[in-house]
Every structure is written in C-alpha cells, then in structure tokens.
Specification:
The complex is a heterodimer.
Chain A lengths: L4 E6 L2 E6 L4 H7 L23 E7 L18 E3 L4 E2 L10 E3 L3 H17 L14 H9 L18 E2 L4 E3 L9 H9 L5 E4 L6 E4 L12 H5 L5 E3 L12 E6 L8 E9 L5 E9 L12 H5 L14 E4 L2 E4 L2 H15 L4 E5 L4 H14 L2 E5 L6 H6 L15 E5 L3 H4 L1 H12 L3 E5 L12 E3 L6 H12 L8 H8 L1 H11 L4 E5 L5 H10 L10 E2 L1
Parallel strand pairs in A: 1-6, 17-18, 19-20, 19-22, 20-21, 22-23
Antiparallel strand pairs in A: 1-2, 3-4, 3-5, 3-6, 7-8, 8-11, 9-10, 12-13, 13-14, 15-16
Chain B lengths: L18 H6 L4 H9 L2 H11 L11 H6 L9 E6 L8 H8 L1 H14 L4 E6 L4 H16 L15 E6 L9 H8 L23 E5 H13 L1 H5 L9 E8 L5 E6 L4 H8 L9 E5 L7 E3 L2 H4 L19 E6 L4 H15 L5 H18 L5 H14 L6 H6 L1 H9 L1 H10 L5
Helix pairs in contact in B: 2-6, 2-9, 3-6, 5-6, 6-9, 13-14, 13-17, 14-15, 15-17
Classes of the chains: A alpha/beta, B alpha/beta.
Chain lengths: ~525, ~425
C-alpha cells in the first residue's frame, strides 16, 4: 500500500509530502523553519505553546461539482483562514498555501514570545541551558527586544525542586510545553510525571515513589526547550560554550548508543580533560536521539582515583608505570612471539569498529578471535551476523520480533524502546520469558516457559512449523501442541522480516536452536542477540 | 392567559420532581414512543426538523450534532453537560432540582437516538447534593424498568451514571469535560477531531447541555412543527434566560427565543432598582462582550442571529444587567480575575495573558495607572485574540475589549481620579 502524496506551497516553495504530515514537518522538507516549543517530531503534536502559528489558505471547492474553483488566470482560488493556525497540529491538504513570513505571522510570534517571557525569569546568566536554549534562540530570532510586563509582577516559584534523585525542576523557567510529560507517557511508558494545578500555577510534579522513577528520565532534560529540567550531575557544572564535544559509543550494554561526551580541561583535575556530561548523539539506526540513564549518568567511574590511567608493565614481578610507546612495544613483541597461537578474547560491549580492528589485527598475525558472550555479547551475532540493512526503526506491519530469554527493559533499555515502537507501528511482537516483564503489554503473543526450558520452547516452535515433526521429549511435545505456541510460531514464520533477540538468560544450546528458527522464513532473518 | 411552562414545568405542577407525578403528566411516554416505535435515525431527524440549538452557549444545531456520530466506531456515549459554571447562569440547576425527570428523559432519548448504552451526567463539584438526588432518581428509573436491560421488551439497554467535577470552570468546555470524566487533568483537547468522532475514551460521544436535553421529550411527544411555533425561524423554541445584576426581580425566565431585552429586563425583571439608568448588558455571562444598553439594544430580540448585530453573543443567555453606578474598570476586573483563576494553563496566550491582564487591571482599579496602561491592557487582550487553544481564552477578552472600546470614559475617569475605588 502506497501512501497518498500531497502537494502544497509554503512561502512560494512547492513541496510534496505524504498525507498526514503536519505543516511544520512539511516546511522542514522545503527548508523552511517554523519555530516550535511544544512540538517535537518524535511525539504527537498538542498545539499548546502556539508558537508555530502560520497563515493557512485552502483551495475553494465547488460544492456542486467537487472541483477546485479557479481564478480568471486559471490559478486555484485560495481562501485564507482569518485566524492563524498551529502548524504542528494542522495536517497538509492538496493545494494548501502556507505563509510563514507575513507581518501577521511575525506579529503573532512576537506576541506569543512576549507572553512566554512575562513569566519566564530571564535568569539566562546562571541557567544551564543558556547558550543552547531554544527559548533564547527563538527570542533572538522572533521576539520583542524589550518587555512591557513589569518585572516585579512576575510570579515567583520554587527554583530547585528535585523531581527525583537525578532530575531537578526550576518551576519558574518552565514554559508548560509538556514535552517531558508526553515523552514519559507516550514514548517510554513511564507516566510518572504530570501537570498539577492550573493557569499560571500549572507545574510539573512527579507522582511516583521514589520520585521520577524512570530509567529514561535524563532524556527529558535534552528535549526541555528551556532550563527547567536539569540533571543532578551537570547542573551548575559548566557552561555549554566551555565544552568540547567528543563523539563516543556507550558500552554499558550491547545496544551501542551513540554518545557525545562534553569535555573540558580542569585545573582541579591537574589540567586533565574531564567529562562534564554525556548526551545522546543522533543515530536513527541505533538510538535515535535517546539514551538510558545508565548511559548518561554511569560515566562517573572515569573520575575514580582507583582507575588505571596509564600503562603498567610487569618488571621483575612488580607492575611499574611506563610510557605508551614502551607499553605498545612490549605488546607488539609478545604478539609477534605468539604468532598463530594468539587468541584474542573480546566482550560484547565493544563497538563494531573495535571488533573489526581487533579481528584484523589478530588475524593479520595468524591468530584467532573469540567473543566472550557472558559479558553481554552474543553467540547469535557471531553465528548469524547482523545483516546489512537491519534497522529496528523500519520494522512495522508485516514484520516480526521474537524476544526470548531477555528482559530488554533491564538488559538493553533502548532496544526495549525500539521494539516497543516497532510493535506500536504494527510489527508482530512475541515475548517469551518465564516472568512478566515490561514488554508483555505491547506483545501480540506472550509465551511463558519454566526457567531453563527455553530450548524446549524453541524446539516446540520449530516443530510447530515443521512438516516432519520429529519425535521430541514428552514435555516439548506438549508445548508445541499448545495453541499459543503454534499461533506465535506461525506468525513469526509468516513475517517479511524478523528479528530474534536472544538474551543472557538463555543457555547455549537454545541459542543454536534459535538460529534454526530463521530457516523456515522466506528471507533470512536479521538476527541479533545479547 | 399565561403560556404554560415547557421546561420549568414544576412551576405549574407541584412535586413534578416525584417520579409518580411526572408519569401522571405523561412522563417517559416520549421515551417509550422513541424506543418502541421510532428508529434511532427517525429520532435524530425529528430533532433536526425542530431546529433545536444547543443551549450551553454555542447554539449548534442539536440534531445535526447527533447525526455526526461515527457509526463505524462503537460503543457510543452520551454525556450531559451539567457543569453550569458560567457566571450568571443558574438554569440547569433549577431544571435538575425541579424538573429532573424531563432532563433525564431527554438524556435517555438522546442516548437511544445515537444508540449509546451508557450515558454520563457530568456535574460541577458544587452540585454534590444534586448528584445524590439524581443518583436516587436514576435508581427509581431502574426500579420502574425505564432504565436497565431490554427496555420495553426491545433490544435496547441503557444505564446512566453521574460524575462530579472538582471545581474547574474549564470542565464545562466539552473536551476538557471529557478529559476530566476520564479521570485526567481538566484541559481542553485539540478540535478536530470533535467528540462525535473521537470523544469519551476515544469513542464517538455526544455532549449536550442539560437545558438542551430537557427540550427533547417535548419535541418527540408533540412534534417538530409544534416546537417551531415558539421562537424565531432560525432560533426556534423557548429558552431559559438567567437574569441577574442590577434588576428588581432577578431569576430564571422561560421565554420564547426572540423576546427583546426590554421585555425581559423591564417587564419580567421589573426594571432597575432605585430609579437608576441601565448602562450595559452582558448577554452571555462573564464570557460576554458588553452591550451598550441604548434603545436599539433594548429592542433587539434575544436570539442567536440578532444579538451579534450588537457586537456580542447570546451564549448561554445569562443576562447580567449593569446600571449607571457601575464603572467598567470595576466590572472587567471581576471578569479578568475570574478568567485568570480559571485558565487551565495549557496554552500560552490564555495562561500568560489572563495573568498579565490581572496585574494591569488591578493597577488601573487602584488608581495607580495612566492611560498608557489602559492602552496596554487593550493591546494584551488584542494579542490574545485568535491565538488561544479553546474558547475560554478567546472569551476572556470579550468584556475587556468591549469595555475599553464602548465605555472609554469610565477608564479616563479612573485614570484621572488616581484614587482607590470602592
């Protein structure tokens, strides 16, 4: 099924987008920026902040004929809405004309910004967001230069409210856009924060115990368009313009989320470079723009004084510090000596590039490599590989995901998020785990087995699909006759694309069997595991 | 001879809030007629033909609203909007106290018309006593087999539940009402989609005002033609006008739509006390633009088409009379404080604009302001216009703009006075 395409004009630029696209996203495609606060492309629009107001005209349709009415020169007759419309909540329609640069639109934006700034404390000089703040940027671009609101009539609210251990709220800076509330509810299924009170007293509160009880909470500080939400570990730590960005990969779990490490040299650290904060780096194939709190806050071990910070070489039974050059010489010499007896063992948390280089290095000498799977890597990746083109973000209707022996929410939070989203897009999700878990509610098929019997379950699924149905132990036979197992196996086999997540709770034999599950599929399934 | 009451029938018939008395006077025959002899769409067509328009304020044709219900998505719900929160409005309360069964019957017929098996009555929190009374009456209807399963031996079943709000004006806005009814924070939703497509719990829903529903049994019983014999062509029927403010006899007056302001205020309301002159009229409670009460205005018929010619709306017909003793800065200070207190805070212009206006009008009223502040107040109100998410914000400026435009002398006097007013 192909999506219907809609052609519209924005500031004279013609653009064609799929039906259902909103004006803000359509404008982006035409290279036109419509300013927003509450809208976020990863979430449903709500039209609360009113920043994206634009002039919208639609072709007049003759009610009798259903045809577009034309002007004398043959152009479409356009009727403009006397009121400005919110671009984020208005879907495009054929022949629509959007004006983003008229005086009326500019005036509207200035008005909204003036309203927003009446309550905002304008404490940019001490605000962590200062320098990377959408409110600052949009005020510079569209706002009034001065305020007609009397400064001492501003409402004063609490400025240091801990929502939980990790996130602080500055109630004065909040512009009530609700991005954080919607992120927690819509995206990560942890609706633990919400709005309380009303009017100018409307503010974010947490209603979980402990506060802001979510493993994704740090992301709300990234999407907060002002300095209302800050992290406990970065607030007042540094100014954004003092920091350098270093691209990195998270190694807390096998997802490999792309990170930006914000670093600077500090006198307190003896002039060394220290990490001031960790932020997600956009990679739509891996982590989109999200990371979990482990990845964001778990870097503080780098500050440990116990940490090995320089190479040591054992000399006469004692470990003594040496230069990198000397240490690398020693390693190279040992490698040469080992030759084809070299075995390098790597854990599953390294990046693909690290694995590639290590393998090249080892095999160049004639040695062998091994993946140490108990560290959170996976046999299945080594067995089946992660085929080119595997993108969790593209899985949807017609595809299937089998999660077996893994509690993804605990083991690999971003995979949990992306599997959940794929299921919401219509992918068939099969979750097999001995206990209830956070993925169950999004799954079409939930299969329970007893701890240690994942091989039996997979055998049962293979048997349910096989014409020969080899004789199996009684228990397994009972399993594959279960209707739910048969239906799930069939649903999996019928999928266009399929992914198997095999978790660290499974035993080795079952991994091999899981690999076989991909056989009955019309196309080899991209398979990964941890 | 005086015309018998149609909606406030309890004023003619004692103890009409007793089920037995209501049934003696033909009660629930319209519901029986609808369920046993009419198809749901025939009921909708009858209400359409009657020209009945929503009495909650918007005046939207009721039958047309019912016909918008999405028949591809089930179940359907009907919600009675009994949040009656507009300052100066007190009609639904009298109906629910004095003539509750006529309202309930209307709700039941509406439910049948859109094939809803569950209906809710959303009452403002202060109406808790009314909610208890309605609960008891709903129980009585169950005992009398007028509610419950397989009514009159047909396949149709209906249950009604009451729900109390927690004291927010915004929950009278139909989508905020639905949010509140779902147990969420009372904030309006984006429209479209409108409730007949996506309403309560995401299902097609009809939200009707109490007074609107109280009209329905009459239409089914006596027909659309009869109903059209009251009121005007485009605003048929009778309306309860809530008269308050500076009048000798405030109260609810049931009159045909199209009655003039003069008749309501001077004939029924017995004029202005202490021999004072009438100065202005608010026709739609606090959400109203101020009408200059000149001869033309007084002779204007109160219906949905005529009142806009005065730069105002009929709304819920809460007619607040203002006499010459009232200064408009005092008046709009009241309305601004009200809207500032009741703004839900969801959209920027209303949340910040009402708060800003409150500070300016307080300064003006304290006699600390200059003409520049009056102009600033006008500017702030103007820049809210057309930008708010729902009608609350849009209506909060009506009184402000019209007061400054139509009664500039009041503000000039206040600015010149520079002394605190009463």
């Amino acid at each position: 099924m192909t999506t219907k395409m809609i052609t519209l004009t924005i500031d004279g630029i013609q653009v064609t987008v799929p039906e259902g696209t909103n004006i803000v996203d359509a404008a982006k495609k035409a290279g036109i920026d419509i300013p927003v606060f509450c809208y976020h492309p990863k979430m449903h629009p709500v039209g609360m902040c009113r920043m994206c107001l634009v002039e919208v005209g639609r072709p007049v349709i003759d009610r009798a004929t259903g045809e577009f009415v034309r002007n004398e020169d043959g152009s479409l007759k356009i009727q403009f809405n006397p009121k400005l419309e919110t671009g984020c909540t208005t879907p495009v329609s054929e022949g629509m004309v959007v004006i983003n640069t008229s005086d009326k639109v500019k005036r509207g934006r200035k008005d909204i910004l003036e309203f927003l700034l009446t309550s905002h404390p304008l404490d940019c000089p001490i605000c962590d967001k200062g320098g990377e703040c959408p409110l600052q940027d949009l005020t510079m671009a569209h706002g009034p230069g001065t305020s007609r609101f009397l400064f001492d009539e501003k409402k004063h609210l609490l400025k240091h409210t801990p929502l939980g251990e990790l996130i602080y709220l500055d109630q004065e800076r909040c512009i009530q856009c609700g991005r954080c509330v919607r992120f927690q509810d819509e995206l990560v299924d942890d609706p633990v924060i919400g709005f309380s009170q009303r009017g100018r007293s409307l503010q974010i509160v947490t209603f979980s115990e402990p506060g802001f009880d979510s493993i994704f909470s740090g992301n709300t500080t990234d999407i907060c368009p002002v300095g209302a939400l800050t992290t406990a570990d970065f607030r007042f730590g540094a100014r954004p313009w003092e920091l350098n960005a270093a691209a990195s990969i998270c190694h807390q779990c096998p997802v490999g989320c792309n990170l930006t490490l914000n670093v600077r040299r500090e006198a307190a650290a003896g002039g060394k470079v220290v990490i001031k904060r960790v932020m997600p780096r956009q990679n739509e194939w891996v982590n989109e723009i999200w990371i979990c709190d482990k990845g964001r806050f778990g870097y503080h071990y780098t500050e440990s004084t116990e940490r090995l910070t320089q190479p040591l070489v054992r000399k006469g039974g004692e470990l003594s510090p040496v230069s990198w050059e000397e240490a690398l010489e020693v390693v190279a010499e040992r490698f040469r000596q080992a030759g084809e007896n070299l075995l390098s063992v790597a854990g599953g948390r390294l990046s693909n590039e690290d694995f590639f280089n290590l393998r090249k290095l080892t095999e160049g000498i004639g040695g062998r490599t091994a993946l140490y799977t108990q560290m959170g890597g996976g046999d299945l990746v080594a067995l089946a590989g992660m085929p080119q083109g595997s993108n969790l973000g593209e899985l949807g209707k017609g595809d299937a995901i089998l999660v077996i022996a893994s509690d993804l929410h605990q083991e690999a939070p971003i995979w949990w998020l992306r599997v959940k989203q794929a299921a919401e897009r219509g992918a068939t999700l099969i979750v097999a785990l001995p206990r209830p878990n956070r993925l169950d509610k999004f799954a079409q098929h939930v299969l329970r087995y007893r701890y240690g019997e994942e091989s039996g379950l997979i055998l049962a699924m293979i048997n349910a699909l096989s014409a020969k149905r080899p004789e199996l132990p009684g228990k397994v036979n009972a399993l594959w006759r279960e209707a739910e197992v048969q239906i799930a196996a069939k649903a999996f086999a019928e999928a266009q694309n399929a992914v198997i997540f095999f978790g660290s709770e499974g035993v080795g034999l079952a991994k091999g069997l899981a690999y076989r599950l991909r056989k009955p599929l019309p196309r080899p399934a991209p398979t990964c595991s941890r | 001879m005086k015309r018998p009451y149609l909606l406030l029938r309890h004023r003619d018939i004692p103890d009409l809030n007793d089920l037995a008395v209501y049934r003696q006077h033909g009660g629930f025959e319209a519901f029986r007629k609808a369920v046993t002899t009419l198809q749901p769409n025939e009921v909708v067509e009858m209400v359409k033909a009657s020209g009945l328009r929503g009495r909650g304020g918007a005046g939207f044709p009721t039958g047309l609203k019912w016909s918008f219900i999405d028949n591809k998505n089930w179940p359907h719900y009907v919600v009675a909007n009994a949040d009656e929160s507009e300052p100066g409005t007190f009609k639904d309360r009298e109906i629910m106290e004095g003539n509750p069964f006529q309202f309930l019957e209307g709700l039941m017929i509406a439910s049948y018309a859109v094939q809803a098996n569950v209906a809710y009555i959303y009452l403002r929190g202060e109406f808790w006593q009314l909610a208890h009374q309605l609960d008891r009456r709903i129980q009585q209807l169950h005992s009398a087999a007028l509610l419950g399963d397989r009514l009159f031996g047909t396949e149709y079943s209906l249950r009604i539940y009451t729900h109390l709000g927690a004291g927010a004006y915004i929950c009278g806005e139909e989508t905020a009402l639905l949010e509140s009814l779902e147990g969420k924070l009372g904030q309006p939703r984006l429209r479209p989609p409108f409730p007949p497509a996506v309403g309560l719990f995401g299902k097609p829903t009809i939200v009707n005002n109490v007074e609107t529903l109280a009209n329905v049994p009459l239409i089914i019983e006596r027909g659309a033609e009869w109903y059209r014999s009251f009121g005007t062509e485009k605003s048929p029927g009778v309306k309860i006008f809530c008269l308050s403010g500076r009048v000798n006899r405030p109260g609810n007056y049931e009159l045909p739509l199209g009655t003039t302001f003069r008749e309501l205020i001077f004939e029924h309301g017995k004029g202005i006390p202490d021999g004072k002159q009438i100065k202005a009229i608010m026709a739609a409670g606090a959400s109203s633009a101020l009408i200059v009460a000149d001869q033309r205005a007084l002779d204007t018929p109160m219906d949905y088409e005529s009142v806009p010619s005065l730069g105002a709306q009929l709304g819920s017909a809460s007619i607040i009379v203002i006499d010459e003793t009232v200064s408009m800065d005092w008046l709009i200070r009241k309305t601004i404080h009200f809207f500032q207190h009741e703004s839900c805070g969801k959209c920027t212009p209303c949340r910040e604009g009402t708060y800003w206006m409150k500070h300016i009008i307080d300064r003006i009223h304290r006699g600390e302001a200059s003409q520049n502040d009056v102009e600033l107040l006008y500017d702030v109100a103007s820049q809210m216009r057309g930008k708010c998410l729902c009608a609350l914000g849009e209506f909060s400026i009506e009184a402000v703009l019209s007061a400054i435009e139509r009664f500039p002398q009041d503000f000039e006097a206040r600015v010149a006075q520079r002394e605190p007013a009463l």
